[in-house]
Structures are given as structure tokens and as C-alpha cells.
Specification:
Two copies of one chain form a homodimer.
Chain A (H helix, E strand, L loop, with lengths): L9 E7 L3 H13 L5 E5 L13 H5 L10 H5 L3 E4 L2 E5 L4 E4 L4 E9 L3 E3 L12 E2 L5 H13 L2 E5 L3 H12 L4 E6 L11 H14 L2 E4 L3 E6 L3 E6 L4 E3 L2 E4 L3 E3 L2 H5 L4 E2 L3 E2 L12 E3 L20 H14 L13 E6 L2 E7 L2 H6 L4 E9 L11 E9 L5 E8 L3 H13 L4 H5 L17 H17 L1
Helix pairs in contact in A: 1-8
Chain lengths: 457, 457
């Protein structure tokens, strides 16, 4: 516990959890309610910046350089309580800490996060088999083992797996292998051709990528020695990292009788309120619905957590904001190429029952092509066929792809049609973007619009 | 005239002008009408890429490396006629060339562009006083004079003036001075603090910037020797570049009896059709209305030209697309900083009669801050006070600002409120963007939302 911060008896607004969701909920609530007392209760001290974790091996160098600064909370007049919460006492509106101390609340925000999923693989409990927990000591322990290792196997080719593989290979000559069950890495966010481009980047960096492969056993004695695959392949391994998704931390809510599903998360309404009008939930622990279908949505992202936290912070005393459902917007860098996606892939859209039309563009990100820093940007947009409304987009190319996908996400949020996306008004510049005649999104949307026009005539 | 392309007797679709608007109109029309014959008539051969022109001095190296490739037209089956048009014969639906030859049309697209404005300054006709015309020979002549010059004076601190100054100073030790009448450079696109940041970049690169200064005379004999300012200052000058805006080329339209204003441009309806149902206009030659007010809009940009060309290309045989009015989205690089703006500045919004509320954010463009390539991004958003609807935005920072402003533009196009912008769903990544807790636009919009909330309570 911080000696500077004695545990308060009560606070108007109590937040459980100090990562992206909890921190944003507390600091935004502070702005709307300067007169209220606000406290954050968190288990870990201090908290790593989650998105930075894959880059601690070389780019950042240590977990100590990847921490959320606590000074912010002090500055905002937010009490910080570093304790484990034992249970919620809803009747008396108080949080009960592990040592029996209670903290009263008027409004409670659950931002308890998620826990890495460990698939039931025999041997997953061996020494040097890790998952990424947002905890300084555990990450440091993993880093120490990683630095000493020669053969590294990463189980799961999602963003965390791919980013760790890329980072480790960029900063060492270790033997790195990624094992992915699905036909491609990053397959939940990208269609096959974009996944293949990411895999090509990994391969040229020297990462071995095994897709459509299932791990059946983690071998060795007390300590891991290898990984056995369903195909019969055996991989040597000094360290295994399992990155196979997360499960929401719903225990506190469930034990307090709130509706919560161990896979979907703590149930919340559109205003992010649980069944108890005094309790809200946001971030990884909260159940989510898809922007596109209203169905449960498994996406867990820091950027989603902060959006939800902004909804909660504004709604504590009146319903002012609505969560429109989750689009799912992601970006990353693999090798020297940025990859980004928003909304549904073509494959996911079809699976959800949409008839789709797509449009693509491949355009240099400078004009004329002789400008320094030029590289091709590839864009694919997915539209619903009947209405022409945009459902998703994918892009790969230079650094600006990270913001380009946010243009796509904004088009999705506004349910723009391919006709409207083709007519986007954008700024272009020789040193910053494609030529105006060739702007990625206009060209891709125009291609889709032309297909729809052709079919109607 | 291209020997490969004999002048056709007629084409279904005839375009006059081969720059951003004409080229886009022709190539998009080709997609919608594969069966139609299409011809472009243009005066110059070949056509420089307009946005690249300020970078020919050093970054590109010569105007020959900054040309729109004609191979595209060939590939698309578009006839190219390199001739001066003398007049339009609307009664017989034909274009009359300078030599008397006629080309018949069913649909005619005027994309005749604009001509640089030369203010009535005594001495503006001296040798080595230049404006930027989109013509290879004239640009080459300017470049030759520029290379030989020591003292360069640029009259007009808009984008062209600032970009030329920055480029010349980056690639030479010439004495470069920008003279701007308004209190700041770039003042039509940015509020004062952003203009000041751009001027600071220019100053640290060694460019002299004189604002609030009017040129009263260009001195010298046959050839320019200096520039005299209203304040009495005299500047030495071997070369003067005048970049003081453009006037639309309306002569052909006006002579043919179409409604056209020498300052505003050729009148068009929302579907970009002139008073003659067979004749359309797009790009710099066409009159524009503001997205925000419906009033005439002086913005002339290649990105606006291509948007308008897409409207024209789809509407030739039926009204399929509407021009929603011009937002005005721009980006540039000054020194090592990218600057971008969309919509109305705070000052312009107030001048137009809006009550406004603004929100700002200053955020590193990486997270954590130790990531390579980190630089602060500054954002200012302008909202209408009553509705909370976004009217404009400005940003400065790293390369991604070029696309960040397109997120802002998409928010504007969809008339999003500050509440909605605060809840944008975006992708974030340590190597590409701000932290999700700190995303530029969410933070700036939240600040505005909080101001509005505070005033209402």
C-alpha cells in the first residue's frame, strides 16, 4: 500500500482496476465531477502499459520503462488503494478488501480486466511456460527466462504472439517459432491475403510460422524441453509463451449476484450499467456486443476499454452516453510493414450472413513516387451488398496506416455507403499521403460502387 | 499533338483539361461506361503533378520527375488530344479547336483549372518574377532562375509559398524571405497558435518570415532587383515568386453563355452540372459552396477537384451523386513537422457567425514515450456550441497527422458531435499512435464536451 495514501472509509466513486479502463474512467469522471471523491483500488503496483508489453524485450528494454505513471492520479486528486478486493457488499454499498477493511461507495466501476487463457495442454504447467499477465514481477520473470533461452515457441498467432515473435527476432538471433491452430496468423482480424503478407514479413525476419497446427503436449521434465504438435512435429523449446486469448475477470461481480458470464463477461446495458444501478463495468471484464450484429463480441482491446470507460464516466449520475457496440479496430507492425483492420473481414461478414461486395486499392503512400519514404499501401474495404454500407476494412503499408484505419473506423461508425466513402473529402500531400487522384479509400470504395452499379444495370 | 492519337471527330464524353479533375473524371467515367468513347483535350503536354511542384527544387530534382504518366490514358482507352480549345459550340454540341477542327460530344466536362493571380504590384512584370503555372517549360524556366539566385523573395505565405520556402532552404543556403499580408502565414487554414508553430519551423530553418507586410513595388531594371514593402523595408531579390492565390479559368464557359463568375468559377448545381444539361464542370474552374454555410467557397485543392470529378463521372447520364459542399482539408510539412487542418478554424467559425467551443490535446504519438520516433501531436477541435457538432480541426506533429486530419474530416462530413467524437473507436499501437487512454481526438473532444456540460449544469 502507498504510505502516502491511507485507505479512505468511503468515496463517492470507487473504481476497481487500474489499467486502461479503470484509469480512464477515474480521470474522465474527475473532469465531470470535480466535487466528488474518487478512489481506484488496484491489485498490482505499478501497472504496465498493456500495449507496450510485446516491445519490452528490445525496443523498450525493460518493464520498468513501460509503466503507467501514478503521478497522474495524484495530480487529479484520485485516491489510490493498492489492495486485493475480497468481495462486494452491494446491500451496504461497500467494497470489502482482503484484510476485511471496507470502502463505501455511491457509484462503483468494475474494471477488473481479464486473465490469459491457458488451454488444457498437458505440460502447460511446466517451468518456463508463460502467459502474459499485466504484472511487473511476472513479466520480469518471463523476460529473464527469455533472455537465457535459445529456442522459443509461441503458441497462438494472434497480435500478442506475432508482436512478441517479431520483436524477439528483431533484437536477437534466437530460434523463434509461432504455432497457430487456424489456417493463418491474425486470422480473426484479416482476410487471408493480408495474413499471408504478415506471415511473409515474419518469415523474412527469420521467424518460423506453423499454421493449421495444434499443440498436443508440452514436453520436458520439471522444465519445458519441447512442444509436440498434432502433425507429429516436435519443436525444441527453452521457453514457451502461450498467447491464446483471455477470459474476463467476472468473479467479484458473479459472487455479488450480478449477471455475468465467464466467457462473455459482466453483463451491462447500453449505458454500461450492470443489473445494479450503482455498479458499472467497462473494459475487458465487461460483456460486449457487436456493432454489426448485436451479438456477443469477443474483442478485448485497450482502445475499446477506454471508449467504454468514457461512456461510464459520463453516465454515473445520468444516462448521457450510449455504447453503440464494438467495431473492433486494430493496428500493428510486423517486420517493416504496418497492418491495420477495422470491423468485419470479408470472411467474417459472410459467416455472419451478410452478402458482401469488396473493393481494393494498391497505391504508393507518397506522390510522385520519387518522394522519400515511399511504400505501397494496400487497402481492402468490405461493404454490405444491398445497402452498400461499409462493414470493414484492412490496410497494410507505411506508418500512416495506423491512422488510415481510424478513417475507416469512422466511416463504419457512421454507416457510410461505398458511394459516400468514394466521395470522402481528404487532405493529401506529397510527403504524407497518396495522390488525391489515387487516395486509398476513395479508390477502393469506387471499385465496390462500380461493381454494385454494374450488377444493377 | 500525339502522333499515336489522331483527333477524333467526336466522342461520347469529352473532357477539357488533363490535371487532377480532368484525369479523374475521365478514368472514373471509363469504369462506369466501358462502352462509351472518351477523349481528353488538354493544352499542355505532359502535365506536372500539381502538389509535387513545390518539391522539384531538391526533393524531386526536376519537373520531368513530377509528371502525370500518360500511359494510364492509353491503358484506359481514353483518346488524348493535345490542342488549345478556341470555343464551345453548344448548339451543335461540339468543341472547336484553335485550328478550327471540331470534336463532337454527347457529354462535356469542363476541367479547365485555374490561373495564378498576379496582384497589381508595380514591377510584377519584370524578368525573374514568377508565378507557378502547371506547365513544364515555365516551371523549368523558374527552376533555372532559382538555382542561379542568391536572394529569393516569396510573396504570399499560403501553402505554395511556405512549401517553396521550406524546400529551397532545406536544399540550399539561399537567402529566402516570405512576405505575407495577413498577421500569419497559413492563416486561412490555421488558428494563430498553429500558424506560429509553422513560422517557428521556418525561422529555425533560416527562412525569414515577414507577416502583416504588403509589397508595394517590385524594383529593378528589366530584371528584378528587390522588393519594397509598405513598412519601408527593402528586400534584395534575384528571383521573386508570387503565390497569391488563383482565379478559375471560366473563359470558355462564359463565352458559351454559361453562368460563370471570374472569381467564384463556373456555376454548377449539386450534381456538378452547369446550366447546360450536357455540360459539367469540376475542379478549380468550378464554383464551390461551403459545406458549413452554403456560401461561395474560395478553396482550390487537388483533393477537392478529384472528389468533384467522381461526382461528375457518376452523374453523366443520371443524377447519382451529390456534392455536399466543400469542407477544405489540407496537410503539409514545414521543417520536420507535419501540419494539417480540416473545416473551419475557430476564427473563421466565429466570423461566419457560429458560437463555438474548442477542445485541445497534446499527446505523444507513441506509447510508452520511450518508443522510437516519438514526437508530440497537438490537436485542436472546433465545435458549434448549441448542437455540439464539429466544425473543424487542426493538428501538428509526426507523419501520421496526414491521415489523422482525414479522421477529423470524416467526423465533419458526418456532422458528429463532440460526444460522438469522444467515443470514436480507433486502433492504437505503441509504434503507430498515441496510447488508447490518450487518443488525440477523444481527448480534445472530451475537453469540449466537458466545457459544454459544465455550462449546462
Amino acid at each position: 500500500m502507498h504510505e502516502d495514501f491511507p485507505v479512505p472509509e468511503a468515496a463517492d466513486i470507487v473504481v476497481i482496476g487500474g489499467s486502461a479502463a479503470g484509469l480512464t474512467a477515474a480521470t474522465v469522471a474527475r473532469r465531470y465531477h470535480p466535487e466528488k471523491s474518487i478512489a481506484i483500488i488496484r491489485r498490482d503496483s505499478p501497472v504496465p502499459i498493456p500495449c507496450g508489453i510485446p516491445y519490452i524485450f528490445g525496443t523498450i528494454g525493460s518493464v520498468e520503462r513501460d509503466l503507467i505513471p501514478d503521478a497522474l492520479l495524484d495530480f487529479e486528486g484520485i485516491d489510490l488503494v493498492e489492495e486485493e478486493v475480497a468481495r462486494l457488499d452491494r446491500e451496504n454499498r461497500q467494497v470489502v478488501l482482503a484484510d476485511g477493511t471496507t470502502i463505501g461507495y455511491d457509484k462503483l466501476i468494475l474494471a477488473t480486466g481479464s486473465t490469459p487463457l491457458i488451454p488444457p495442454i498437458p505440460g502447460a504447467d511446466k517451468q518456463n511456460v508463460f502467459v502474459i499477465r499485466k504484472n511487473v514481477d511476472q513479466i520480469s520473470e518471463f523476460l529473464t527466462a527469455l533472455r537465457a533461452a535459445h529456442d522459443v515457441v509461441i503458441v497462438g498467432g494472434g497480435f500478442i504472439g506475432v508482436e512478441f515473435a517479431d520483436e524477439i527476432k528483431k533484437h536477437s538471433d534466437k530460434n523463434v517459432t509461432v504455432v497457430e491452430m487456424l489456417p493463418h496468423c491474425l486470422a480473426l482480424s484479416f482476410d487471408a491475403s493480408f495474413c499471408a503478407a504478415a506471415e511473409k514479413q515474419l518469415a523474412s525476419a527469420g521467424v518460423k510460422v506453423l499454421t493449421g497446427e495444434k499443440v498436443t503436449e508440452i514436453t520436458g521434465g520439471e522444465k519445458v524441453a519441447g512442444v509436440r504438435l498434432a502433425s507429429g512435429t516436435e519443436l525444441k523449446a527453452d521457453v514457451v509463451l502461450i498467447s491464446a486469448g483471455v477470459r474476463p475477470n467476472v468473479e467479484l461481480a458473479a459472487q455479488a449476484g450480478l449477471k455475468a458470464d465467464p466467457v462473455a463477461g459482466i453483463w451491462v446495458d447500453r449505458h454500461m450499467r450492470t443489473e445494479d444501478p450503482h455498479i458499472f463495468a467497462c473494459g475487458d471484464c465487461a460483456a460486449k456486443v457487436s456493432f454489426f450484429t448485436g451479438k456477443p463480441c469477443p474483442v478485448r482491446l485497450a482502445s475499446v476499454a477506454t471508449m467504454e470507460a468514457r461512456v461510464v464516466a459520463a453516465n454515473l449520475y445520468e444516462n448521457r452516453r450510449e455504447n453503440p457496440g464494438i467495431i473492433g479496430v486494430v493496428s500493428t507492425v510486423v517486420g517493416r510493414v504496418a497492418f491495420a483492420a477495422a470491423g468485419l473481414t470479408e470472411e467474417a461478414a459472410r459467416r455472419e450472413g451478410f452478402a458482401v461486395v469488396t473493393g481494393e486499392a494498391v497505391t504508393p503512400n507518397r506522390h510522385p513516387k520519387v518522394m522519400p519514404g515511399v511504400t505501397d499501401t494496400r487497402v481492402k474495404l468490405v461493404f454490405e451488398k444491398g445497402s452498400g454500407v461499409i462493414l470493414g476494412g484492412q490496410a497494410l503499408g507505411g506508418e500512416s496506416v495506423g491512422e488510415l484505419i481510424n478513417v475507416v473506423a469512422t466511416c463504419i461508425l457512421n454507416r457510410m455507403t461505398c458511394e459516400q466513402v468514394a466521395l470522402l473529402q481528404v487532405g493529401t500531400h506529397p510527403l504524407l499521403t497518396a495522390a488525391p487522384t489515387n487516395y486509398y479509400l476513395s479508390v477502393a470504395a469506387e471499385a465496390a460502387a462500380q461493381k454494385l452499379h454494374g450488377e444493377r444495370n
